[in-house]
Amino acid sequence: MQAFVKIKSGTYRNQEVKDEVFPLIKQFQLGSKGGYITVDGSGRFGKDKIRVSVSTPTDYELVDAPTAVEESNPERDEQRMSEIAERFDILNEMTKAVLNGDIRAMIVAGPPGVGKSFGIEGELERANLFDQISGRRVKSEMIKGTASALGMYKALYKYSDANSVVVFDDCDSILLDDVCLNLLKGALDSSKKRRISWLADSHSLRREGVPDQFDFKGGVIFITNLKFDQMKSQKTRDHLDAIQSRCHYLDLTLDTMRDKILRIKQIARTGELFQDYDFGEVEQDEIIQFMSDNQTKLREVSLRMAIKIAQLHKSFPLKWAGLATTTCFKSR
After folding, report:
1. What is the pTM for the complete model shown?
2. The predicted structure's pLDDT at residue 65
């Protein structure tokens, strides 16, 4: 039987973990950097095995499974889905405003796998299509994955013109690097003239013809899985507070496993999620109910996982659930 634990006070990768419930994998242990417990963090952090730092065993307590999974309430769920949809509508409108140059910068925070990038990427593709048809240089780009400080400087220079936009997606390492943070603060500065400089010598910049300083007139969108207000390190918090003061910060507030299930249900209702599978309402409901019933067992609860299960449902309509149990559940 799956055990659950409520962490009263702890940290994971400089993020505060307080009064949150996780499936327990291994109880308190002492390591070289102090005490920790091992939990399933897929619902909050997108990883199914993480070590949460705690000072002593008194910083957490075992709880019963029903307290870890929210009970469904149709009326409450409909209201919550409307709230989630409204947040993503705001995200799309804010993205358009950044592309139009009306808003200088935006940070979007939310857990992995809920479609943070999808709407933004769609708006970028539409904007770039007009540039391509007109024979103009494309003015926006989405950069995914790890970004070095030098790579970030080059990207900001490439899209430094007015009405240009650079999007950093899943580049959370930037927030833990002082040089990257200072570059980001420079790009988001509220003054009329945003001067960005690279003071260190660089053969790479000279070879590519990138100057050691330039005025940044473009826009920036930063998509992150981290919540700024839950970062534990005071030094990092100071940087992030400075960044927040310079731009719009949109927290999608998908903080629970139930929120993720409702987000999946909300996208399915629009017809976008399963549009390639020719499913009726019954098949869609079966997939979402399967995910809801097994939310603590799945490797992740995300739109990507819904598509994986849909593929099995389409290919194996009589035994898809058994195959999903085998291929989509976490190993024990």
Report:
1. 0.78
2. 62
